[in-house]
Specification:
The structure is a homodimer. The first copy, chain A, has helices at about 5-10, 15-25, 40-55, 60-70, 80-115, 125-130, and strands at about 30, 40. With about 140 residues, the first copy, chain A, is mostly helical. The model of chain A has no long low-confidence stretch (mean pLDDT about 95). The first copy, chain A, binds a DNA duplex (30 and 30 nucleotides) through helix 2.
Chain lengths: ~140, ~140
Amino acid sequence: MLKISELAAKTGLTAHTIRFYEKHGLISASERSEAGYRYYNEADIRRAEFVKTARNIGFSLEDISQLLSIRVDKTSHSCQEVTDITQHKLDEVNAKLEELRSMQNTLQILLKSCCGGPENATHCSIMEALEAGDLKKTRSAA
Amino acid sequence: MLKISELAAKTGLTAHTIRFYEKHGLISASERSEAGYRYYNEADIRRAEFVKTARNIGFSLEDISQLLSIRVDKTSHSCQEVTDITQHKLDEVNAKLEELRSMQNTLQILLKSCCGGPENATHCSIMEALEAGDLKKTRSAA
DNA sequence: ATTGACCTTAGAGTCAACTCTAAGCTTATA
DNA sequence: TATAAGCTTAGAGTTGACTCTAAGGTCAAT
């Protein structure tokens, strides 16, 4: 049985984050001491590590919530449900990659066009390009 | 002279966003009607379009703020200042790209490993991989 | 017995960039 | 003249994932 700071050390989460995850139903301590201290057993630890792993991959807390409900009763959930969540995340990642590549491209073009030297910016080609506004849109949402 | 909704139409920003940008010092109306209505002249419009272009490229409002201070007095700023901002943004974008590529890779591996079928998730290889926790970390910050 | 490290809670604060609301003027059109 | 569309402001709400604070209780070691 681990105390919260021990679980924190083990998972690399902070105690604050663990409590935060508990509030959002991702993690819980199956026991409490008389004084109210959280105590985590083996199953709790595995669940916390599952959450950490999923988080590291980039799943949102909402995604992880879904994955956890599958996890607690695998027999009543299908592989398809799991791949759906994963595919959806991949779609998001791909969309973001597309956006970032476009930003990268534009920024590289801007940098190549400018001398970058100590001369004053009166004829800076980056500034001119921003004035001209003929740069393609790279950003969709925040 | 354009009213706020006309500037909105012209730039593709909303009137709300224009006021928000004003509050943050990015845009302003050089005139007001007696009733307090904002009126934008040619220079205001060019500035608003500059902001929009920079925003589309992916610069933060903070970045844009810096670019605008260079813009209003180009002679006392160097090309290097401009490229520094641009390079810094590119560095950010590259870091994020790296992170996302790693996420993409992991997600693709997971998807390839799982049948994705209607069978129950008892032996789902995605779930197993998440349990095992041997997936490399892809995420650094939110 | 006292220190100091650790634990508890509810709730507030942070970040970025909006987005919206309410209450009340103003202006253009029918 | 009445109605609707558009403008004003201050300020609150949104999103996601934390992050921190205050005020206090607990525990191990000296």
